[in-house]
């Protein structure tokens, strides 16, 4: 029991853990280079996703979660504009007014994600994140896979937003 408690505390303190299985790994199509789900704890400023991107690759990121911005604050739905992406030290807001979408990586480097806040120690809650690195730039294929994801989780706002964007660009 003690070892299990230490393991749970270690996962919580690490800030970024594997998330729930969103899609069976053996069913991911060949045009997906990497598929990862993880959980980002709100008290963490920035966390390495362990995903290396090449310039020109398409990446979809979809988020869902709730964050309390202070000890006495309300638990709020996480918005993607409260999440930053970092590639080679460059920091950019993930998206504006949506919780998911696809972007082209302008530079090569390691992808990190973090919560945008001046003081992280009083935050609580978490954001579940789905990251897909594509081997394709075909929004038809991207839409097809995102539709399959949405069927598995129809209420996930990040998937809904990413799928709407992919359909409009298809």
Can you describe what's shown?
By secondary structure, the chain is an alpha+beta fold. Helices cover 24% and strands 39% of the residues. The chain contains three helices and ten strands; from the N terminus they run αββββββββββαα. The strands form two sheets. Strands 1, 2, 4, 5, 8 and 10 form a six-stranded antiparallel β-sheet that branches. Strands 3-9-6-7 form a four-stranded antiparallel β-sheet, with no helix packed on it. A hairpin with a 6-residue loop joins β4 and β5 (75-77). α2 runs antiparallel to α3. The longest helix is centred in the C-terminal third of the chain and has 14 residues, at 139-152. The radius of gyration is 16 Å and the shape is globular. The model is unreliable at 1-16 (pLDDT under 50).
Task: Name the descriptors.
single chain, 170 residues, alpha+beta, 6-stranded antiparallel beta sheet, 4-stranded antiparallel beta sheet, 3 helices, 10 strands, disordered N terminus
Strand-helix topology:
Layout: H1 2-14, E1 16-18, E2 32-41, E3 47-53, E4 58-68, E5 75-77, E6 83-87, E7 90-93, E8 100-104, E9 109-115, E10 124-134, H2 139-152, H3 157-169
Helix pairs in contact: 2-3
């Amino acid at each position: 029991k003690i070892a299990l408690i230490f393991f749970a505390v270690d996962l919580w303190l690490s800030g970024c853990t594997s998330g729930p299985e969103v899609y069976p790994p053996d069913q991911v199509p060949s045009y997906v280079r990497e598929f990862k789900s993880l959980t980002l704890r709100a008290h963490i400023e920035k966390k390495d996703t362990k995903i290396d991107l090449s310039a020109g690759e398409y990446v979809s990121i979809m988020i869902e979660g709730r964050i309390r911005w202070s000890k006495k604050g309300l638990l709020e739905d996480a918005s993607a504009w409260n999440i930053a992406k970092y590639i080679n030290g460059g920091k950019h807001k993930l998206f504006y007014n949506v919780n998911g979408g696809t972007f082209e990586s302008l530079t090569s480097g390691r992808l990190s994600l973090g919560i945008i806040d001046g003081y992280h120690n009083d935050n609580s809650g978490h954001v579940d994140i789905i990251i897909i690195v594509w081997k394709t730039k075909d929004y038809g294929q991207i839409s097809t896979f995102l539709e399959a994801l949405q069927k598995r989780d129809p209420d996930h706002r990040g998937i809904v937003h990413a799928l709407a964007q992919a359909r409009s660009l298809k």
